[in-house]
Amino acid sequence: MNCHDFEAIASDLARDHLMEAAQREKALAHSASCGRCASRLADERALTDGLRFVAKTANEEAPARVEAALLAAFRQQRAALPGTAPARTARQRWLYAAAGVAAVALIVTLLALAASRTRDSQQPGLQKAINPSPAVPDEPRPASPQPQASPSPEKREVAVQATDQRRRPANRIRNVGRSKPPADDLSRPAAADEIATDFIPLMNRETLAQMDGGQVMRVELPRSALMSFGLPMDMERATERIKADVVVGNDGLARAIRFVR
Amino acid sequence: MSAGGLAVHRQKMTLQTTPSDLDLLRLMMAGDEDAFTELYRRRQGGVYRFALQMSGSPAIAEDVTQEVFIVLMRTAERYDPTRGSLAAYLYGIARNYVLRRLEQDRVFVPLADSSEEGTTHPAMIAEGDALGDLTRGERIQSLRDSILALPAHYREVVVLCDLHEMSYIEAANVVGCAVGTVRSRLHRARALLVEKLRAARDRNSASQEVKPARCFA
Question: Model's pTM, two decimal places?
């Protein structure tokens, strides 16, 4: 073995990297007879020792806020994906069921009330506004009505940004290709400090397209109604109430709903 | 799987074996938060340290760690166990994010291949054996700095192979190149480090030579 050959394997030799025993013997024999290569091997071994010490003393870990932010993102994703929701306890199932029944009963009652009113008094002005028109500008994309827990202010931005860039929640209805509720009512979605979701259709598009008028009614629903529409909900706040706007056609049928915070 | 799915899964597994990364990943994909938490806690340290050793910035390391696991939870199905370990997969994602951040921030100054005067950390200088005292605590940071000063393609193989003790094959999987490329880059990177330290030793020796006073007799 000459110096050139030794140079090629000096690093592996110093790092105790696996190599053929014969080659290792030759390299060691060469370094014993060559001062330059012996010095090279000594430097390599010292460097290896230093690097191993650096590796051994490196015990840094990500701050706890990273784990908290990731867990929040994980829960948010899990809530948005059907079929991956965690198993619920019997108490939770009963709570969901009761809340769902209550929500449906409330909506049906409200719709029946609205139907009786609208049959009595048609509003011609609304009919014009109710017709779906592609010229109606899209609403600004709303924030989720149920803010997710985000443990760190500085991480919240990252997590939310990542959420928006990588995955649109399947339950977030886009405006493209769907009928619009009355524009007059949509123009006043809520007070300036309110945030609303997009309108979520309650029936198919064909039926929505046939809508020739109606109105938007502000109602209050159990927060658990969010689950009925596939929206995330904090179980601890399931008994609280949340505002919603229901678009009711002149025929008394509910066409769409949005949640307001 | 229920919230306690991980515990149940463990009970079902035979003879006290801890769940593998792949087991945890599958549970995580099924929505098991405990599995995700365990997988994160198992792998976050390596990912964080890799990003820290590559960037020298705790802020970048923190961001990269978060991004890596967000990518994992959203695109876990892209991981192919036949192509390498999950750890290598995570390192690969981390590497891409680190390089992207470094490109954006340009926080490092490349180390020239040839030895240059004045670029060696004084703490790396030692009399006699320049590297012999590296294990001293005050010199460890200097060695880290020297690694940080390497060009990124050299730095990453030093970090992976020497600091994270990956095999050439694993490192090649992370970097996305041939095993021979990893080997040659590591050889060159270590030679650069040794070269810098030799130069420092020589300068130190020269500065400590006793210069004879001029004799006026």
Answer: 0.54
